[in-house]
Write a structure and sequence with these properties.
Low-confidence stretches: 65-76, 545-552
Strand order of the largest sheet: 2-3-1-6
Helix content: over 70%
Distance between the termini: 66 Å
Order of helices and strands: HHEHHHHHHEEHHEHHEHHEHHHHH
Structural class: alpha+beta
Oligomer: single chain
CATH class of one domain: Mainly Alpha
Length: 552
């Protein structure tokens, strides 16, 4: 026998058992489902009150936050839950609504036993953030209670208290911060003024030793040292010039000869002879038509060349008279030597003066580092206090901006978006949960009834079971003998009695589900139904009839 066949046979047997003991399934299932629905209607109701508010940062506070707003007046987002539903907030709530709890319709136990109420508040209050960003926080506060009015009163009062308390705390913090920053700014200004006066006195007393001064001692030392080098170079140059003039004066004589020159007669004679020879050469060539190899022409040319050579060696002028006079160059050199000596002496005097000044400045520069150290210390103190002043002024400006924004409710806007209205629908128990529990438990109860009935049943359903139990051979069997009267009764029961029972059971379950639905989802209608059931049913019947005839 295959596995699939065995499974089909097992399912068939289960179905036969279920049909055989169907009443053992239906009755426990009906009783359990009805009981669960009735218990669902009797369970205590829990109502949830919910309120929504938002905390919005306007552009002014956003600009402050981007520039490093001080944490002294910024409420961190993480503390909203603690400030909203913490122990101080609950104590403030109980103190504020004490009169309303005593006079309201909340029950004597709630008004008297505030310790249990405080514990319930700490356990059941829930804070959620619908939106959480730097510009906007939307917060949802919910509380679940057995009384709808109490849930509404708690959430609304907590949100109102938080808004009032936050506004007062922020204003107080801003005003205290502004006063603190104003005091710090005033102190820093007085300190800076005193340091500046000290610096001015110091600059007057040690003008030459300050590094920023154009006439400071270091620049003066460098300038004087440069002057000493220049003057020393000039002195050396003057000495060299004086020495050169002295040497030139030593080699220059006191008198100079005067020579009178005239034309050299030999030179004149040679020129005349050269001209004659050149005339003869021209005559020989032009008139006599001599050739180049003519001996006379060759001899003539040799004479001309020799005469030219002698002419070049002979001076054109010759000394005719010699005289001795006073040498003017020596007088000029003596004048230049006197000037150079005077210039050297003047430069040496100037060099001595400048060297004395350099010595004096060098002796003063020994105190340069101490003076500059004191001056730089004053400068650092002044710069530090100026930076501190800028810091305090910046904080003061931001706090004043925030205070102005808070005064007009433009910095941190706390808006009560949705107040908790009158709560009518409970949040617990839940309709679908009760229905699912009723169906599940009824199925389990019915299955348990069928299981017990099957396990406790010792009867045999067919001849094969009887033969197997008695271990006797089966020769034959006789079917059930049903009379006409029994057949009619079975037909009547199948056609009338079973459908009526099924309709009754379904009607009861439907009525219970309807009452449970009205109790959980339509509590106002359910209360009116309990107070005036007859009038309510009559009104519903008339309304239904009018609704049916309206289209006609």
């Amino acid at each position: 026998m295959s596995r699939h066949h065995r499974q089909s046979q097992a399912l068939g047997e289960v179905w036969e058992i279920l049909l055989r003991h169907r009443l053992r399934f239906i009755l426990p299932a009906f009783v359990v489902m009805s009981g669960v629905l009735v218990v669902g209607m009797l369970l205590p109701r829990k109502y949830q009150g919910e309120a929504i508010f938002e905390r919005r940062n306007d552009m002014v506070l956003a600009e402050i936050a981007t520039r490093g707003a001080s944490q002294t007046f910024q409420s961190p987002r993480g503390s909203i839950s603690e400030e909203l539903v913490g122990a101080p907030a609950i104590d403030e709530l109980l103190a504020k609504v004490k009169t309303e709890l005593a006079s309201g319709d909340y029950g004597r136990r709630v008004a008297a036993d505030t310790s249990n109420l405080r514990a319930d508040l700490q356990r059941l209050l829930l804070v959620r953030f619908d939106i959480s960003s730097a510009e906007l926080d939307r917060v949802r506060l919910s509380y679940t209670s057995t009384h709808p009015g109490l849930a509404r009163l708690v959430v609304n009062t907590l949100v109102e208290n938080y808004i009032e308390r936050t506004r007062a705390v922020m204003d107080d913090r801003l005003r205290k911060s502004a006063a603190f920053f104003e005091g710090e700014v005033e102190n820093e200004r007085k300190t800076i003024e005193g340091i500046e006066n000290q610096m001015l006195t110091f600059e007057i007393s040690h003008a030459e030793m300050l590094p920023e001064s154009p006439n400071n001692i270091q620049a003066s030392v460098n300038l004087v040292q440069t002057g000493v080098d220049d003057i020393l170079q000039k002195v050396n140059a003057a000495k060299l010039r004086e020495k050169a003039l002295a040497e030139s004066l030593a080699t220059t004589s006191q008198t100079s000869p005067t020579i009178v020159t005239g034309a050299n007669p030999d030179y004149k004679r040679m020129e005349d002879k050269l001209r004659d020879l050149e005339s003869q050469q021209a005559n020989c060539l032009g008139v006599l038509k001599m050739t180049e190899r003519h001996p006379d022409l060759i001899a003539l040319r040799a004479q001309i060349d020799r005469l030219k050579h002698d002419l070049e060696a002979t001076p054109a002028e010759t000394v005719t008279q010699t005289q001795s006079t006073q040498n003017p160059k020596r007088a000029e050199i003596e004048l230049l030597l006197s000037t150079a000596r005077a210039e050297r002496e003047a430069l040496e005097t100037q060099l001595k003066t400048v060297q004395d000044r350099l010595t004096r400045l060098s002796s003063q520069s020994t105190a340069l580092f101490a003076v500059r150290s004191d001056y730089r210390k004053l400068s650092r103190d002044a710069d530090q206090h100026r930076r501190q002043l800028t810091f305090w002024e910046d904080n003061l400006r931001r706090v004043r901006m925030a205070l102005a924004a808070e005064s007009g409710n433009r910095g941190v806007q706390l808006n009560f978006l949705k107040r908790c209205d009158v709560v009518t629908r409970p949040v617990s128990p839940n309709l679908m949960q009760i229905i699912m529990a009723a169906v599940g438990l009824s199925m389990l109860a019915g299955a348990a009834g069928v299981f017990v009935a099957h396990r406790c049943n010792d009867s045999y359903t067919d001849a094969d079971e009887l033969a197997q139990a008695t271990r006797l051979p089966l020769l034959g069997s006789v079917s059930e003998i049903v009379s006409d009267q029994q057949r009619r009764l079975r037909r009547l029961r199948t056609a009338v009695l079973y459908p009526i029972n099924a309709v009754a059971l379904v009607a009861v379950i439907a009525a219970l589900v309807t009452l449970l639905y009205m109790s959980l989802e339509r509590p106002e209608t359910f209360e009116r139904l309990k107070q005036q059931p007859a009038h309510f049913l009559l009104g519903r019947t008339v309304a239904d009839a009018g609704a049916k005839t309206a289209p006609e």
